[in-house]
Design goal:
This protein is of the alpha/beta class. The chain has two domains: 257 residues, Crotonobetainyl-coa:carnitine coa-transferase, domain 1 (Rossmann fold), CATH 3.40.50.10540; 83 residues, formyl-coa transferase, domain 3 (2-Layer Sandwich), CATH 3.30.1540.10. 38% of the residues lie in helices and 14% in strands. The strands form three sheets. The protein has a six-stranded parallel beta sheet, sandwiched between helices. Strands 7-8-9 form a three-stranded antiparallel beta sheet, covered by helices on one side. It is elongated, with a radius of gyration of 25 Å. The mean pLDDT is 97.
Length: 401
């Protein structure tokens, strides 16, 4: 294994997560240098290994799994068996962090619950990611991304005004929970550095979803009124939305009154500045439909590329609506090295989306491709626990690994 170089080098993580929220959290730690051992069920592994098609070209690995499991070593272990639990405890004894996303209380029956482990390993940082957190009336329920998007309110805000509520096109509830979990772990590490004390991080997907309602959540708290669905328009700024052009669509982001003045002066619309319905952002929000109806025929006079060139010259926010083929070919995305290839144990290389955290002194490193199921079982058991080939063969015969 290539030695890690990131800022979390030397930290060891016991990863009992699967699907997306937990693996996202653990991959972030791994990218930053932590040594992550991913525990998977013998013969089956992480559920997302079966989330295919598509698979990565030249491999049998699902694109979904590959996306959030790099820099981890895969160890197959049946924690339902006593010997599996004993191995888990021996590995955890050497770890700084445990990340899990089992249902509330599920790990306790294996002797791996927080209270049980905290008593034995008081320095252990134990991050639990669940749908609804460890407490509250919904705590026993399973959590799924679309379910959380629905219950957390974002679906009521997303979609056309007269259309159906819509979920976001990527599983943001899972992703945010994983990232908030990583933030909690980093804070807990700081606390442990100061006090020597570990603790549990309780991440509920619904909690994190409510937290990122951001301006829309605050709009409700300020008014007591449910914000309406606005399609591609902004609830607090106008014009800040999608407009049709002569050959497609564009996002126009006019963030304040000076920018709107610059927009009007740049495109011979100064008469709008003399109209009180357009003069301020508050007035434009109050006359949203009028602003949209007035600017739509203006925007339709020229193609998207013309608008982008002109608006960028005037330093007015704008952008095309890219398909993913456009995103990954975008010269800025390419220049920022947001896609990389890693040599995979299948013999092929796999493309992955890079870590977006750019650290000047200790950048993310990419040392282990997303692993085959159980790829590192023998190596980890030998390295960490000193087991020889005969002992490992015996465990495999019993289906413990």
């Amino acid at each position: 294994m290539t030695e890690p170089t990131g800022p979390l080098k030397g930290l060891r993580v016991f990863d009992l997560t699967r699907v997306l929220a937990g693996p996202t959290c653990a991959q972030m730690l791994a990218d930053l240098g932590a040594d992550v051992i991913k525990i998977e069920r013998p013969g089956a592994g992480d559920d997302t290994r079966g989330f295919a098609p598509p698979v990565m070209p030249g491999t049998n690995e699902s694109a979904y799994f590959v996306g959030v499991n790099r820099n981890k070593r895969s160890v197959t272990l049946d924690i339902g068996q006593k010997e599996g639990q004993e191995i888990a405890l021996q590995l955890i004894a050497q770890c700084d962090i445990l990340v899990e996303n089992f249902k509330v209380g599920a790990l306790a029956k294996y002797g791996l619950g927080y209270e049980q482990l905290h008593a034995r390993f008081p320095r252990l940082i134990y991050c639990s990611i669940t749908g609804f957190g460890q407490t509250g009336p919904y705590a026993p329920r399973p959590g799924y991304d679309s379910l959380i998007q629905a219950m957390g309110g974002v679906m009521s805000l997303t979609g056309e005004p007269d259309g159906l509520p819509q979920k976001v096109g990527v599983p943001v509830a899972d992703l945010f929970a994983g990232l908030y979990g990583c933030i909690g772990i980093l804070a807990a590490l700081r606390h442990r550095d100061l006090t020597g004390q570990g603790q549990q991080i309780d991440i509920g997907m619904l909690d994190t979803h409510v937290a990122w309602l951001a301006n829309q959540g605050m709009n409700y708290l300020a008014t007591g009124e449910n914000p309406p669905r606005l399609g591609n328009q902004h609830p607090n700024i106008v014009p800040y939305q999608v407009f049709p052009t002569a050959d497609g669509h564009i996002v126009l982001s006019v963030g304040n009154d000076p920018t709107f003045k610059r927009f009007c002066e740049g495109f011979k619309l100064t008469h709008l500045l003399e109209d009180p319905r357009f003069a301020t952002n508050a007035a434009r929000v109050g006359n949203r439909q009028l602003v949209t109806d007035t600017l739509t025929p203006v925007m339709q006079q020229h193609p998207t590329s013309w608008w982008i060139e002109q608006l960028e010259t005037l330093k007015i926010g704008c952008g095309p609506i890219n398909k993913l083929a456009d995103v990954f070919a975008d010269p800025h995305v390419v220049a920022r090295n947001m896609v990389l290839e890693m040599p995979h144990s299948s013999g092929q290389s796999v493309k992955v989306i890079a870590n977006p955290v750019k650290l000047s002194e200790t950048p993310a490193d990419y040392r282990i491709a997303p692993p085959l199921l159980g790829e590192h079982t023998d190596g980890v058991l030998t390295e960490r626990l000193g087991l020889d080939a005969a002992a490992i063969a015996d465990l495999r015969a019993k289906n413990v690994i």
